[in-house]
Amino acid sequence: MAGELILIVEDNEKNRKLARDVLQFTGYRTIESDTAEEGLRLAQAEHPALILMDIQLPGMSGIEALGRLRADPRTAAIPVMAVTASAMTHDRQKIMAAGFDGYQSKPINVKEFVQAVRALLDRPAGGGGPA
Ligand code: MN
């Protein structure tokens, strides 16, 4: 465990706390934002190893934020995992089609969540292949 920095973008305080607690317990460092706009600023400034992105956020959506991350050379290569309450199949397809590197539905299953985070962090840099 290298203590990689993970950015959590999530507007629900309970969900944010759960992700933070699980990740810190697992040995990662975390930073947080409750809006996409602030998340983009943090991503540019802190260069996290992974971003966990809620989809439904006040203001800019997680899907729009992903597009902005990908369009910026400073953040284009950071893996981004969608974490969303939308469990319906067509929502999942829409989210993956948007170009996210992974997907976890809320409420998170802690074991699956940690495995998904680890898999994305272990992926070779500059990957971009299937998660
Ligand atoms: Mn939300």
Overview of the molecule:
α2 packs parallel to α3 (62-71). This protein is α/β, with parallel strands linked by helices and 131 residues long. The longest helix has 14 residues, at 13-26. It has helices at residues 13-26, 36-46, 62-71, 89-97, 110-122; strands at residues 5-9, 29-33, 50-53, 80-84, 102-105. The protein is built from five helices and five strands. The site of manganese (II) ion has 5 residues, from loops. Manganese (II) ion binds next to loops.
Broad CATH class = Alpha Beta
- Overall 3D form: globular
Extract low-pLDDT stretches: none
Global Rg? 13 Å
Report the helical percentage: 40-55%
CATH superfamily, please? Response regulator
Largest beta sheet: what is the strand line-up? 2-1-3-4-5
By secondary-structure content and strand pairing, the structural class works out as alpha/beta
